[in-house]
Design a protein that fits this description.
Number of domains: 2
Strand content: 5-15%
Strand order of the largest sheet: 3-2-1-4-5-8-9
Distance between the termini: 24 Å
Radius of gyration: 22 Å
Shape: globular
Number of strands: 15
Number of helices: 18
Oligomer: single chain
């Protein structure tokens, strides 16, 4: 923690209510506090448990960080009491009500700004109204963008030039215009909302977010310059947006307790079980399989994964999440008995940071969420890419085509957009991808690239590194704005 030699800045943080957004913003709040500033995180009662342990460990180490609770307007928009997170948005109707509720938080945030007089507010891009609210109080609003520079540039390319409108079918390939590399994609790989004809409430919200981004003070990106230098430069020059890369922010969790507590829903016993199992394995011998905190699969998809992992003949840790009920018919007969000692199935939460950093882990089969991509990069682990939705198909292109640290399993959306309920990826493709990343002709080359990139990632957040320096510059700009 840095010694304070100036007036302390007070920063408000307002994370979007979804674990993929919440966890990195907790880390960003800790980063500001580690520089001697005061961080206040604002959330709702149902979301508070995910913050509590991180706040406690941070305060015990001397960081000036606190949690403020506000009421989520569930009943005002017709949601059942207690639905305060995007995790519960299982239908389009619930999702629309949830996003409508976000705009109703403005009045409570305004009261807190009156009461606490912070010097800056950092909020998710979905809280578009915080731009005008910050201007009302004469303070800067910084946007936290969940994705990295590459997926943001890819998204802007599609939004501005609409290349998907010039092809005849969803499966026809086209090049994303005006990007530093030739990125080939299909309409099926674009986020679903881009192809919608009707202007839904969510589409209206996204348009409002894009407009207020232009008037905000700038954007915080969870990335590091050396990961995507062409796209960091392109984003700033082509779109004229001020931005600061300060990641990988998960690296602020240096103690094992901080890493094991991140996003925890389980117990210490689960952590110990994972690490004990991994400790018995040889270096680079285990495939870690996880599709993020939100994604669950139908029986047929889970069966293909099980068959593919078994056929690969490699050891694995698999975080398996099933849709709807808890029955286990999807497991092939005798699977767990045959995989005893060779495969560990986790149902629910897993200590991902600790697993990825373990020397036994030799590959990461991932859904390509940005947090998972960065955590894999930081650990220096090669990846097998299986994107599901949103910007994950963009992220796959970064890993496989630009960075060269992974192989694709061949995930494609079906005509109705399904990748989680229909077995579009068969066990043979899973076996092939696992075999290719673990013992293929290019495996050692890919591993060397991944390890080198991991070392660069860790250097970026150390004093003198690119992300450390960008955070310093950002703090000074906020301080100058205050003056």
């Amino acid at each position: 923690m840095e010694t304070k030699t100036h007036e302390q800045l007070h920063i408000f943080f307002l994370p979007f209510m979804g674990q993929g957004h919440t966890l990195p913003l907790i880390d960003i709040a800790k980063l500001f506090a580690s520089r001697g500033e005061k961080s206040t995180i604002i959330t709702t009662p149902a979301n508070a448990p995910i913050f509590t342990r991180a706040i406690q460990t941070s305060r015990s180490s001397g960081l000036d960080i606190e949690l403020l609770l506000i009421k989520f307007p569930s009943t005002e928009v017709g949601l059942p009491e207690g639905i305060e997170s995007s995790n519960w948005s299982e239908t389009a109707e619930i999702a629309e009500k949830f996003f409508k509720a976000l705009s109703l938080l403005e009045q409570q945030i305004e009261k807190l700004l009156h009461q606490y007089h912070p010097h800056c507010i950092v909020s998710s891009s979905l809280f578009h109204w915080t731009t005008d609210l910050a201007a009302k109080f004469g303070i800067p609003r910084l946007i936290f963008q969940g994705p990295g520079f590459f997926p943001l540039c890819a998204s802007m390319s599609v939004t501005l030039y609409q290349p998907h409108m010039k092809v005849a079918s969803d499966s026809e390939a086209f090049v994303l215009p005006n990007l530093p590399h030739e990125i080939i994609i299909t309409r099926n790989e674009l986020p679903s909302y881009i192809k919608q004809d009707d202007e839904t409430e969510i589409l209206k919200l996204l348009k409002q977010c894009r407009e207020t981004e232009k008037r905000s003070f700038g954007i915080i990106i969870n990335s590091f310059y050396e990961l995507e230098p062409d796209y960091a430069d392109h984003y700033r020059k082509a779109f004229g947006r001020k931005s600061w890369h300060i990641g990988p922010v998960s690296l602020c969790n240096t103690a094992e307790n901080d890493q094991s507590a991140r996003g925890r829903e389980g117990s210490d016993d689960q952590v110990h079980e994972c690490l004990h199992w991994l400790n018995s394995k040889k270096p680079n011998s285990v495939v870690y399989v996880c599709f993020g905190s939100l994604n669950s699969f139908s029986d047929c998809v889970l069966t293909e994964i099980a068959l593919g992992l078994e056929a690969s003949e490699h050891q694995f840790i698999w975080v398996a999440k099933k849709e709807k009920d808890d029955k286990e018919e999807w497991l092939p007969e005798g699977f767990e008995q045959r995989m005893e000692g060779k495969g560990l199935i986790i149902r629910g939460w897993a200590p991902q940071l600790l697993i990825l950093q373990h020397e036994a882990v030799g590959a990461f089969l991932t859904h390509c969420g940005w947090n998972s991509i960065l955590e894999g990069v930081t650990a220096g682990v090669p990846m097998i890419t299986w994107p599901l939705f949103a910007d994950q198909f963009y992220n796959e292109k970064l890993v496989t085509q630009i960075l060269g640290i992974g192989v694709s399993v061949g995930s494609r959306k079906t005509s109705d957009g399904a990748v989680k309920s229909k077995a579009g990826v068969k066990w043979e493709a899973i076996k092939k991808a696992v075999t290719e990343i673990m013992d293929g002709d290019e495996a050692e080359k890919i591993r060397c690239k991944a390890v080198a990139l991991g070392e660069i990632a860790r250097s970026a957040v150390e004093e003198g590194g690119s992300s450390y320096s960008d955070l310093t510059a950002l703090i000074e700009e906020v301080r100058s704005f205050k003056s």
